[in-house]
Write a structure and sequence with these properties.
By secondary structure, this protein is of the alpha/beta class. Helix content is 29%, strand content 26%.
């Protein structure tokens, strides 16, 4: 049996104010037009963060719906869970009737132990989806400690209990897949997971991989970098993988190989050799260069159409530096200054140019300066929504 695992699409996201819609369209067209068409998987798993925010823009919703329609033409089963950037209610609304079409959404707590059953001749696959769990909210329903490990452990207890009950009634071997969205100890973060503080990502605490005991394969979402078998070890025979995001959302990911994972599972389970990487296409390259203004505008650095981050090392910041560099590097998105003093290069936190920041980033910086701490996930989401409303109002005024 063949499974495709992807996550963290973040449809509707922008990169330093630049729309990523063309990159999303390119990836999703490749996914259904090439990968699914050629590999003919039995199951597609999308492990959370379909959208970049709880109230996605209209064009993001339309792209997602168009993608589901194209995937549905192949008649495969699809398991979709909600991530911390999704609204569980909105993502899961009007989806109950879709299971008959092979589209299975897991956004409600009471559906945690309700698997998508994918049959084969000699075994059945039970594919469970755990929606994004927020301990402060969800722990009370299950009457457990308000921690990430506790709520995930309870979700897995319910899943393992359901598996045991099904084993008593099944004449075939059963294999178990779990799709979830969480930060597992040992995972490596990038700059694009918002509001990272010590061991918290997007308001979620870390959890041990041990909580997923009982599953054959855990399809993880939440961390944007893909992880190999040597980076995170699951308990016992359980294999746990992050597919990572299919598009880079920060310059810290410029060298990452974005991918979709293909998993082969048999009646005996999943082996490391049965996990294959399918490299996602790049619509545009991403690069970072460093130097003085004189070096940057000289022939030392060729003009490029890549998304570009420039690190400026002049002793003083030249006037109109961003506009000057933009004339040579048309897709310059980020400018950072490192002021050189006595031959030592140091980061100047106040040297970042405001015109290079999105309104959302400027507002988040303001909140952090006033409150002395980073904006919470809820505040950050509210900032995104307010800025989107202002843009929409301005668009309507200018019509």
């Amino acid at each position: 049996m063949r499974i495709l695992h992807t996550s963290d699409w973040h449809i509707g996201r922008r990169l330093h104010g630049e729309s990523l819609a063309p990159s999303h369209e390119s990836f999703l067209t490749w996914l259904h037009g090439e990968v699914i068409k050629e590999t003919k998987p039995d199951l597609l798993v999308v492990a959370g963060d379909i959208y970049d925010r709880g109230v996605p823009p209209t064009e993001a919703i339309e792209l997602f719906e168009d993608t589901l329609a194209e995937i549905n033409k192949f008649g495969i089963q699809v398991l979709i869970t909600s991530g911390n950037h999704d609204s569980r209610v909105r993502l899961g609304s009007n989806t109950r009737f879709m299971s008959g079409l092979g589209l299975h959404f897991r956004t409600r707590l009471h559906e945690v132990a309700k698997p998508v059953v994918v049959p084969s001749d000699d075994f059945d696959l039970l594919a469970y989806g755990i929606p994004y769990l927020e301990p402060d909210v969800d722990a009370s329903m299950w009457q457990v400690e308000a921690s990430q490990s506790a709520v995930l452990a309870e979700a897995m207890r319910l899943i393992n209990e359901d598996v045991e009950n099904r084993k008593k009634q099944s004449s075939k071997s059963l294999r178990v897949l779990v799709a979830t969205h969480a930060f597992v100890e040992g995972a490596t973060k990038s700059d694009s997971e918002r509001n990272i503080k010590d061991i918290r990502v997007g308001g979620l605490g870390q959890t041990s991989a041990a909580v997923f005991a009982g599953a054959d394969y855990v399809a993880m979402g939440h961390i944007h970098r893909p992880h190999s078998k040597s980076e995170i070890k699951g308990p016992g025979s359980t294999l746990l993988r992050y597919s990572g995001s299919p598009i880079p959302f920060s310059f810290s990911e410029r060298d990452d190989e974005k991918q979709v994972l293909q998993i082969e599972i048999s009646k005996d389970g999943v082996k490391d050799t049965g996990i294959e990487t399918l490299v996602a296409p790049k619509l545009r390259g991403m690069n970072q260069i460093e130097g003085t203004m004189e070096e940057l505008i000289s022939d030392k650095h060729a003009a490029t159409k890549d998304w570009l981050k420039v690190v400026l090392t002049d002793k003083e910041i030249p006037i109109n530096v961003f506009d000057t560099l933009k004339r040579k590097f048309e897709n310059l998105l980020d400018l950072e200054t490192r002021i050189t003093t006595d031959g030592v290069v140091g980061r100047n936190q106040d040297g970042v140019l405001l015109q290079n920041l999105t309104p959302e980033e400027v507002t988040r910086r303001f909140v952090a300066r006033v409150t002395k701490e980073e904006a919470s996930e809820q505040v950050s989401s509210a900032i995104d929504d307010c800025c989107a409303d202002v843009r929409l109002s301005l668009t309507q005024v200018n019509k």
